[in-house]
Structure formats: structure tokens, C-alpha cells
Amino acid sequence: MVPMLIGGSLNAIGYGIATLGPGIGVAMIFSAVINGTARQPEARPAMMTTAFIGFAVVEALALFGFALAFIVS
């Protein structure tokens, strides 16, 4: 009996697991904005600006990880 060969690399699995971090980060950012808007509606524009900057930073880190997954493999 021939053992089953598995091709590919573990980078795809590692990146798949690493996507949980940015997903949780984005959820935390926007849940804080929703909570803050419910508490103080007049501060919504300032909170949304900060939220979009935080969202961009979190997603940029996710894209760097995606690029590194291809560079390392």
C-alpha cells in the first residue's frame, strides 16, 4: 500500500489561521463605534473617521501577511 502524498505548503494553512486576527480586529473596531454612537450620537463623525483609519491599518497588516505567504513559499 502506497502512503498518500500531500502536496503544497503549510503557508496557506498558516495564512488561513492568521486571517482570524484581522477579522476580530475589524469586528472590535466597528463594535466600539456602534457602542459609542449609541452612547453619544453627536460624536459619530469623529468616531467614524478614526474607525476607518483603524480599519485601513488592520487590513494593511492582513495584506502584508498575504504577500509574505507568497514570498516565503
From TrEMBL:
User: Which Gene Ontology terms of cellular component type are present?
Assistant: plasma membrane; proton-transporting ATP synthase complex; proton-transporting two-sector ATPase complex, proton-transporting domain
TM segments? 12-34, 46-72
Membrane topology, as annotated, equals:
Multi-pass membrane protein
Q: Where in the cell is it found?
A: Cell membrane; Membrane
Domain V-ATPase proteolipid subunit C-like stretches: 12-71
Predominantly, its location class is membrane
In chain numbering, the residues marked as site (Reversibly protonated during proton transport) are 59
Enumerate the HAMAP family for this protein: ATP_synth_c_bact
Q: What is the recorded name of this protein? A: ATP synthase subunit c
Query: What is the gene called?
Result: atpE
